[in-house]
Design a protein that fits this description.
Layout: H1 3-10, H2 14-21, E1 31-37, E2 43-49, E3 54-60, H3 73-90, E4 98-105, H4 111-122, E5 130-135, E6 145-152
Parallel strand pairs: 4-5
Antiparallel strand pairs: 1-2, 3-6, 4-6
Length: 153
């Protein structure tokens, strides 16, 4: 087995490659399921069957293209979500493709505001992503949060 084969087998991603190599058609659709959806914007678990693509979005910060950062937490949160959306869009995906989101908060007291903005942005998705919220030291003291995500299509 070559190095590529070893890596994809170890990750459990071998089936689409084996099928493609054998000339078999790729799966036509991605099946998704969310377990124990909470408020419509996240679930306790998100399951994806036979994705063709995975997109790993690095932590998106509350800064615009010029590096400007708002002082208000909700404004920062909306901007960080817009930045996540921009990365998804650049890959031809949308918020509905999210399967895992991690939100890092600089302050515990912002968790309710973060939830409210997440509800504004994600609304009621048919298959909400799994979510983790962590209170942590953020790289830049002006940033009150950072959001990373994984999307599948």
């Amino acid at each position: 087995m070559d190095r590529r084969g070893f890596c994809i087998t170890g990750l459990g991603l071998w089936a689409p490659f084996v099928a493609a190599k054998a000339g078999a058609p790729a799966p036509a659709t991605v099946r998704r399921r969310s377990y124990a959806p909470a408020d419509g914007t996240y679930a306790q678990a998100a399951e994806v069957h036979a994705p063709q693509r995975l997109l790993f979005v690095s932590g998106q910060v509350p800064a615009d293209a010029e590096g400007a950062v708002a002082e208000d937490f909700r404004d920062q949160c909306r901007l960080a979500w817009r930045n996540v959306g921009a990365q998804l869009k650049a890959a031809g995906l949308g918020y509905e493709h999210l399967v895992k989101v991690t939100v890092y908060l600089a302050r515990r007291e912002d968790r309710d505001a973060a939830r409210a903005v997440r509800q504004e942005v994600l609304g009621r998705l048919p298959h909400p992503p799994a979510l983790t919220v962590i209170v942590a030291g953020i790289y830049d003291s002006a940033w009150l949060l950072e959001i990373e995500a994984i999307a599948a299509a």
